[in-house]
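Agenda item 2: BES complex prediction
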Amino acid sequence: MNFSISAALKARKGADLLVIPFWKGKKHAEPAFSSVAALHRHVDAPIAIHDFHGKEGELLLLYVSGEPEKRIALLGLGAQEAITVEKLRRAYAAVTRMCHKKKIREANVAVPECPALAKQDLVRGIVEGLLLPNYVFNALKHDALKEDKIVLLHAVNLIGVGKSELAVAKKCAAICRAVHMARDLVNGNADDVTPQHLADVAQGLAKTCKHVKTTVFDKKRIEKEKMGLLLAVNRASFRDPVFIITEYKGNPKSSDHTVIIGKGITFDTGGLNLKPTGGMETMRDDMAGAAAALAVIQAASALELKVNVTAVVPSTENCIGSKSYKPGDVYSSYSGKTVEIGNTDAEGRLILADALAYASEHLKPSRIIDLATLTGAVDIALGSETTGLLSNNDVLADLLIRFGSETNERVWRLPLYEEYREQLKSDIADIKSTGGRSAGCITAAVFLQEFVGKQIPWAHLDIASTAFLNESKRYLPKYATGVGVRLLITLLENL
Ligand code: BES
Ligand code: ZN
Ligand code: ZN
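Presented output:
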């Protein structure tokens, strides 16, 4: 996306569309941008006859002459007293959806005058609203369908702001690019986005992004490291597992270090505890945590954040076959603890356990955050609006809750009471991998916690219900959402 600015309405150049914001007033819509007076001959009539009220996300398209654009869109922002960054996102997303329908590539966008919000928050809401839905996954469509192809919004000129707001817009655009990268990885065919492909992407980041280094452990090295749980899950796959470590060092003098572990199951059949029809079709999304972790590295480098952050991605398919690992059998983890397999479909916690133990032992983390499409239970608990949060540390948990609400990638904390550990008791091994139906999202996290080094602040984000949508909603497209990227980048920006 190309961003530019015009200080005033009359300084703007031609485009396909001009967007003018309005508040919902007591009697009729009221301009949120004072220079709109210059456009009164176009906008007065629809407002006077109540064809446009300025309600949240309301959009009225006018075809005009004598202006640098052939179209003017009146955009409603709702009541001025109630405006929030999230409401801006939702309202401006409606603009992008309309641009897609009309194949509009260039828009002049007047920035509302709104003392209640800081200018940079205004710009953030607008830019995220415009860019988050400005996404399409076309890679698997044949050229014959080109006619239907969505034309993406290409250039936005913000009117009424200066250079510092332009800088904010460009930062937001870099973050949205990372969100789109995460979505592409999740949406891609499971047969294309394989463990080796994730490793290639991580190696690519090391080539193209500043201060980024990638190390990939292949199967031999994983065997040498004795990551027995990652190897167990991998057994029935003809594709080798990988263990990816991608570091961004933006503050080499500091010892502060955030480790982000992303679940990288590139396809989850369930293994011998095979998933039923209806439960397997979307399981290419089971690496959404890995995609977000790698995208965070890309964004951190693009923004040149003064932080140190490492993405760790254990990755394999979870397949079924004569080499499958078996329910009831006991496998040794990287940490040395032995695990009785309760269900081969609970594979995510196994590969994360080895990653958590490895990161705790070798990466000197100040904090570990794992992102994983881990349980169906989190969908029952929180649905697709909210990510599950479980943490051993109140400070870290509160930060995630705060930035979750700022980015609207909201998280809700569930408890890790030690009594839940009883559900994971094994008579034959140190721990059992599953704890039965009740509190499924919690017992998964209780299992993970066993592998986190003592004293290390750790948070687990269960994104199973937020990473992938069966229908588009607001500024989120159908399928992959890229959830976690904006949340974690915002956390890193504020550390
Ligand atoms: N990948 C799934 C969780 C999932 C479910 C992600 C739906 C996205 C949408 C995970 O590996 C899994 O199958 N978990 C099991 C655990 C159970 C067997 C203890 C589940 O939640 O059913
Ligand atoms: Zn599974
Ligand atoms: Zn899974």
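Discussion summary: The first strand starts at residue 2 and ends at 6.
Owner for follow-up: CH.
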